[in-house]
Structures are given as C-alpha cells and as structure tokens.
C-alpha cells in the first residue's frame, strides 16, 4: 500500500544523503515526498522554499576547502571548516598534497557511529605536514555569523549554523563549536587532547554522537557521497574495526579540489545558512505542512535540518533557473 | 596512531549495532574502548555497571513478542511493543502466521532515514489479518512504568524508557509514545492516520527522525541484526526506493519466535530499564569517565542511551556469571 508514488514516512532530505542531483532533480526528489493535492495552507514546504530561492541564496563551495576522496565505489567530497579548525585545515591540505593518504584505507566501520580511515600499518610518517597539532575543539564565538535555532537542545545552551555547518555556542563562555551531526568529519586522536592532527579522519554515520562535541577536532562535513561510506560492511572486530586486511577499503587518492584542473572539478553549491531563505527552510521542516503529518513537531533538532547542496550552474545545464 | 588497541572515538555501544555477543564477549567489547589505566575516580563506566549487574537486571525477551526475519545475509530480530501498539502487535503476528511476508522484499533503503519492506507488486491481500487498523500513535501514560531522563529534549516535554523502549510522555496531556530512535520499527501508512496496519514496516537507520513521533504507529525495535539492514545499498530512486526489481532484498520468511521450536530459538535477554543498574548505566554514558573524554557531556539524548541485549544463559555457555 506504500510505494514510491505514495509517501510515508516522508522524504527526509539531508545533505550528503545521496548522489547530489542537479537542482531540477532535487526539486523532483522533494516533490516525490509530497502527495498530490497536499494542502499548504499553514505554511510553505521545503520544496516551496527551495523553488523560491534566489541565486544569491547559494554559495559556491570553495575549491581550496574541498577534498575529493576516491575509493573504488566512487568519490566522497568533503568541505573543510577552517572557520573552526584552521590549523587542521592547513595540515590536512598539506597531508593531501604530499600524498599521505594515497593507498591508505578505511579500516573501521562501526554501525550507528563512524567510518574511519588511517594507515593500517601505522608506519607512514608525514614528510611536510605535522602528525599532531594543538586541539581545535572550540573557538571564540566573537564575530562568528550564527543562525540560531530557537529550539531546546539536549547538549548545548544553543545550537544553529555557521557558514553551512551545524554548530553550538555558549554565550556565557563566549565559545562556539561544530556539532557531531550525521556526515560531520573529525580528526581522530589518542588520549592526549593534542594528539590528533588529521592523519586519521572519521565521518559520523549514525545518530549524532554529541558526547564527542568539544572533545575532538571537527574538520568538516561530507557534502557528497556519504552513502559510499555509510553502506560499507560493518567491521566485525571491537569498535567496528575490520579484522582482515582484505576487508580494508583502499583510498586510491585524496586531492584538494583547487589542485584539480577547473574542467575536472565538480562545482558544488551549498544553500547559505545566513539568509531568510534558510530560516524559512528550517521552519518548513520544524512544522511539516503536507497532508501526511497529523502533529507538526513544533521543534527541530540541529542535526535534522537539511543542508542542501547542488551542482552549480557553472557545471550543469540542468541548474535551477 | 589510532588502532583497535587505542580508543577514540570511543566505542558507542548501541543496541542492535552488531552481532549480539555472549555477555562475556560484550564485556570484552566494551573493555576495548577503554584505555589501559583509565582513571574512573569520578564515577563508574558502562563496563563497571554491566559487570556489577545482577541476573535479575536482565529480562528474557518474550518469544511471543519476538520476530525472526530472515534475509539472505542473515537474521534480523525484532521485539514488538504491545505496551504501545497492542492491535498492531496482534495484527503483525497474524500477518506473520498466515505467511503474508514470505517472498516479499525490502524495496526502500534511504540513507540516514529508513529501510522499508512491503509487497513490491502491491497485489497481496491479507487473508486472516487486517490490512488497516486504527492508529496507535500514543497511549495513556497512566500505569506505565517510565524511567525518566532528567535531560532536556528538543521534541518532547520528557523522554525516558518504558520496558526497554525509548519513549516520551506529556504529563499535561497524560499521553506517552515510543520515540523514533535508531533501530525502531514502525508501520508505514498513507495519508489517512488509520491507513497503516503492519503490512509495510520500516526501520530507522539514521539520525532519529523525531518528527515522525506521534504521527505513525511504532511497533517495536530491532534487537539483533540491524547491521544487515543499515549496510544495504541505498536505493537510487526518490525516497531511497530501488528502481529495479532485482535490487529488492527478498524476505525468505518472518516467524514469531514462540512458533519456533524452543531448541531453535535464540534466548535473548535485554537489560531491564526500570532498575538502578539501568539508571547507573545512563549516568555512566551521560558523563564518560575514561581518560579520553576531556569535557563530559553532562547530558544525554534518549537515542544515545545504549539498550544492551545479550544471549541469555539458557542458550549460551558463555553467559555472564
């Protein structure tokens, strides 16, 4: 009785949840989650909001902050977050440029938690980059554009968005930090707070492990290809590690998009999070307007707010008009 | 620098996150996430709590409320929640017993959202069971044992646990309902609130889509084998549907454990959620005690509280002493 022409549970468009589609496809995908004749009297749906978005509501994702990670099943694209972890961003770029990650592997896939890659032999030493860096767990909230959510959060005094990243802040302490939502990328470390640096990275692939917030350096977010990581076979060893070398998923290479010839880049655009369009989008998801929902939630978790990404008009003929 | 003998990000033991191990293995798995020489001065870790648990802290999962769903990669085990949805539990048992699900298929795998199964041809009609039932979205909170969390929640006035299920309640309205955490199972429906009934079921395999709470009938929880669902290839069509019949994952059969000869049953036990042991476990996760954590979270989301399940002593020689 429920097929792709009907709806529930309703489509849940989360950034990086599948192949990034041209805007026209994105609209079609959203539409597929809404019934024919749905009543929108009480407000606008996300489709309505995205269809009304202006070109200036989208920002190009900076190629200098973009990583292409290639594995046999395809490409994972990560946007770095130098707003929060500038030293790690620099070091990860240096690691990438010296080829540190080439031939390394995904060695850990823990269900409802993380996918992680590193040197399985623990033998490689960075040549130009650093192995460890001082922690960048939080930063000053001063001067940081922060689109705040009005909703209560279990873990932080306030949550919201900074330049496209889900974040939290503590006005009393004057600090802000990225939060561990699905798709966020962090730098693994040992017990010492300053023992990370980017040689090992993990991606959140389960319910937001918010207890990690302010305990580890978040370095970015997967903006395309998360499903290549989240659908990997789970590791059978403790903590989701693979227990046989042949299970490891080899990373053929990681590159900074800025180092790739422009003609070979994928011109991704992310919906800006400091606009009224984004505020409208949040509201469209806080209280769903279609016929399927009987009780609008009235609230939204920072990790349930979609962060749309599309292929930009410079690289796609199907761009949004 | 980070391997399985070291730790971060720390193990995140969530029910149904992997093969259920005998208790002795469960302890070993937890131990692997804790460093040698970790200081526990401030309190007990989850390992400490589970090691000190009494046999009476565990409850056998009732075979009458247990479903074995077999797919080619293995078995998924679901505990029904008749406390919340008694009519749906009865109807799902009836559907199972008339063989309704045999040969049906998983047709939808949407990244960071749900895995769903149904009749791909939409041609099968229940013989003894009903196709639709009145909604069981919420129930009276009266008389319901409720282990409340003290932590603020984004969506509900209060969250906690009822008989092993994550739940919420509204004391003013006098209602309670199960919440859509990772691994929860619900009955798909069309726009009409009373259009579900159990012929189509979905499992949450992403960040808790709490906007579904009170909008759809939750029927249970996956207690073993969730990784057989969560690691399935994502569907390429809108809403994560497979677009070719050969992508569908066939369900060879679903049975009620009570209908299986006792010698062939898997005697699962769940940690009771109405005990001081469970309250201690919550606290051990609210504020992590090992050396890795620098800033204890001070709070915990209802969907981040582990709900341990083990193979009981009646079926395993490796049971916890």
Tell me the CATH superfamily of the largest domain in chain A. Answer: Cyclophilin-like
Helical amount among residues of chain A, as a percent range?
Answer: 10-25%
Strand content of chain A: 15-25%
User: How many domains of chain A?
Assistant: 2
Compute the average pLDDT of chain A. 87
Give helix and strand order of chain A, one letter per element, not per position. HHEEEHEEEEEEEEEEHEEHE
The CATH class of the largest domain in chain A turns out to be Mainly Beta
Inertia-based shape of chain A: globular
Q: Which fold does the CATH topology of the largest domain in chain A refer to?
A: Cyclophilin
Strand order of the largest sheet of chain A: 2-3-13-11-12-5-4-14
Counting DSSP H or I runs of 4 or more residues, the number of helices of chain A is 5
Oligomer: homodimer
Q: What is the number of strand segments of chain A?
A: 16
Q: Count interface residues per chain for the largest interface.
A: A-B, 87 and 87 residues
Going by CATH, the architecture of the largest domain in chain A would be Beta Barrel
- SS content category of chain A: alpha+beta
For the report, how would you describe the main beta sheet of chain A? 8 strands, antiparallel, barrel
Mind telling me the C-alpha Rg of chain A? 20 Å
Instruction: Calculate the terminal CA-CA distance of chain A, rounded to whole Å.
Output: 36 Å
């Amino acid at each position: 009785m429920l097929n792709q022409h009907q709806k529930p549970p309703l489509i849940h468009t989360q950034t990086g949840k599948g192949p990034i589609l041209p805007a026209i496809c994105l609209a079609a995908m959203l539409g597929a989650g809404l019934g024919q004749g749905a009543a929108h009297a009480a407000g606008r749906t996300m489709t309505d909001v995205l269809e009304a978005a202006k070109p200036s509501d989208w920002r190009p994702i900076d190629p200098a902050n973009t990583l292409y990670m290639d594995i046999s099943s395809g490409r994972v694209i990560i946007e770095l977050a130098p707003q929060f972890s500038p030293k790690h961003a620099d070091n990860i770029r240096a690691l990438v440029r010296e080829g540190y990650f080439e031939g390394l592997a995904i060695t850990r896939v823990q269900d409802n938690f993380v996918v992680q890659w590193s040197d399985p032999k623990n033998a490689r030493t960075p040549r130009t980059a650093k192995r460890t860096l001082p922690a960048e767990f939080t930063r000053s909230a001063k001067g940081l554009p922060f689109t705040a959510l009005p909703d209560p959060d279990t873990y932080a005094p306030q949550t919201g968005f900074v330049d496209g990243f889900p974040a939290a802040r503590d006005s009393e302490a004057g600090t802000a930090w990225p939060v561990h939502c699905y798709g966020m990328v962090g730098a693994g470390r040992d017990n010492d707070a300053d023992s990370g640096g980017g040689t090992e990275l993990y991606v959140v692939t389960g319910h937001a492990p918010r207890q990690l917030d302010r305990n580890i350096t978040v370095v970015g977010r997967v903006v395309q290809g998360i499903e290549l990581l989240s659908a990997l076979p789970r590791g059978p060893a403790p903590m989701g590690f693979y227990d046989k070398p042949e299970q490891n998923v080899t990373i053929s290479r990681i590159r900074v998009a800025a180092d790739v010839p422009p003609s070979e880049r994928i011109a991704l655009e992310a919906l800006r999070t400091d606009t009224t369009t984004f505020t409208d989008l949040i509201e469209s998801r806080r209280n769903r307007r279609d016929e399927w929902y009987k009780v609008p939630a009235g609230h939204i978790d920072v990790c349930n707010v979609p962060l749309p990404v599309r292929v930009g008009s410079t690289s796609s003929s199907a761009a949004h008009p």
